[in-house]
Amino acid sequence: MSAPKFKVIIAGAGPVGLSAAHALRLANIDFLVLEKRQNVVIDVGASLAVGPASMRVMHQLGLLESLLEVSHKSERRKALTIDGRVVKDTPFYHHLKNNTGSTSIAFNRVDYLRLLYERLGSDQAKVLTGKDIVDIINSNSGVTVKCVDGTIYEGSIVIGADGVHSKVRRVMRRMALEEDPTRSWDAENPFLTTYKCLWFSTPSLLSEQNLSGCPDMTVYETYHKDHSIMCLSGKLRCWTFLYKKLPQPTTQRLTYTKEDMEEMVNTFTDFPITEFVKVREAYNKRISSSMASIEEGMTRHWSCGRIVLAGDSCHKFAPNLGLGYQSGLQDVVALCNRLHLAVAQAPDGIPSTLALNQVFQSYHAFRQGPANIDAKLSAFLIRLTVWANLFHYFLSLYILPSLIADHILQNWIFPPIDRRMLVLDYVESEEPFAGRVSWIYKIPTPSKEKED
Ligand SMILES: Cc1cc2nc3c(=O)[nH]c(=O)nc-3n(C[C@H](O)[C@H](O)[C@H](O)COP(=O)(O)OP(=O)(O)OC[C@H]3O[C@@H](n4cnc5c(N)ncnc54)[C@H](O)[C@@H]3O)c2cc1C
């Protein structure tokens, strides 16, 4: 009989769960992914935009080159009011490029999921679909995970990457309160929803005449009271997001029908998406579309026993700044760096319960500050675009459109945040790009070069 090995069960094959699978694979740590849906690669019409810091990690995972082939590069930023007035038009991203060596990119979320899945190669067999997790039993030596179909899986720990309505988070809460009913814990529904969002993808919205000489991708925002639009207008593909304030904030889970989506589009019909196209006209050309609530918040607890959370299950942001997955990817890096070390230091390669608790505490202590900054920035941006108060209104129309504001944001506010982004410290590789601002956490240089 073979000796027991340290094995991580990942709940959810979303972008965070599959990124964790890649990071664990590179750390030589065994894993199993349990995914509720029948397919991993599903198109819900959304894009993902990521900045250079995330691209460095994607490079370590061996995904960046292929991803760039299907990505658009952000070049300009424009803002409009609903009467079509352009209040901002700047080459916002050139500062980012100067500072980091690359601009940000956007791609179809489904293309990224496909890449994450396909690049697992033979380890695709470790991704099981149709596995809806319903319960977890935590013991001093491991975890037992139960699924709706009656199957049971044994492992050493569970990473709950099962999204905003996480079952793992609920099981963790139940366990913590069974252990000590007087203990204060996060609420059953810990996130608050103030806005909803309908998104759709279309072929490029640019006419052939406008395509020539235009930037690879322009990021548009349309501001209005309680409504706003964001559009990533690329040369080949375009992703549009319609945001609307709910009558009342709620912690309840809301779902939307086709009729709700029609009603939402109707309230935006004549809003401009770009200088050339209005909402209804674009929506009629959609390839895919979906609608969801925009939950916001961060849980106070990220682990209990042998269960630990990552991604949307423990922090959920408004998507305007595109920080949701990127923050989840930083969770994966922070957690896997610590797990890699703990496994390497354990005499038999199996960290004790105490060692794992220390890993989880240190991971949470390290990540909660940066995740909180991401939450605050994201909350601020959505409120700015829907003119949540007079301050947001003036800022959006009279201050932020200026080139000076771009300069301050991109050279003074964002670089100190960006340069603190983590990389996997056990994956050797070349830096994919370099700019004026140096990264604090460097990608380890290949040992072959060190010998030279
Ligand atoms: C409109 C929109 C645009 C966005 N744009 C960006 C962007 O540009 N950049 C960015 O960084 N972020 C963006 N985000 C946020 C980003 O999509 C999320 O942060 C990211 O998807 C979180 O990944 P995750 O893997 O944690 O969760 P999810 O993507 O929700 O994946 C969770 C997975 O767990 C599975 N699951 C759920 N329950 C169970 C269960 N009981 N058992 C087993 N499996 C289960 C689900 O089926 C799913 O596959 C956007 C979000 C929205 C809504």
Concise overview:
The protein is α+β, with helices and mostly antiparallel strands and 452 residues long. Helices cover 36% and strands 25% of the residues. Strands 3, 4, 5, 6, 12, 13, 14, 15, 16 and 19 form a ten-stranded mixed β-sheet that branches. Strands 7-2-1-11-18-17 form a six-stranded mixed β-sheet, with helices on both faces.
How would you describe this structure to a colleague?
This protein is α+β, with helices and mostly antiparallel strands. It has a domain at 7-72 and 103-189 and 297-386 and 401-451: 3-Layer(bba) Sandwich (FAD/NAD(P)-binding domain). Helices cover 36% and strands 25% of the residues. The protein has helices at 15-26, 52-60, 64-69, 93-100, 109-118, 167-179, 208-211, 258-268, 279-283, 324-345, 353-385, 390-399, 403-418, 447-451, and strands at residues 7-11, 30-34, 47-50, 72-81, 86-90, 105-108, 127-128, 133-138, 143-147, 152-155, 157-160, 192-203, 217-224, 227-234, 237-250, 288-298, 303-304, 307-309, 315-316. Strands 3, 4, 5, 6, 12, 13, 14, 15, 16 and 19 form a 10-stranded mixed β-sheet that branches. The protein has a 6-stranded mixed β-sheet with strand order 7-2-1-11-18-17, with helices on both faces. Strands 8-9-10 form a 3-stranded antiparallel β-sheet, covered by helices on one side. Strand 4 (72-81) and strand 5 form a beta hairpin. Helix 1 (15-26) packs parallel to helix 5, helix 1 packs parallel to helix 10 (324-345) and helix 4 packs parallel to helix 13 (403-418). The radius of gyration is 22 Å and the shape is globular. It starts with 6 loop residues before the first strand and ends with a helix. Bound molecules: flavin-adenine dinucleotide. InterPro entries: FAD-bd, FAD/NAD-bd_sf, FAD_mOase_fung. Keywords: FAD, Flavoprotein, Monooxygenase, Oxidoreductase.
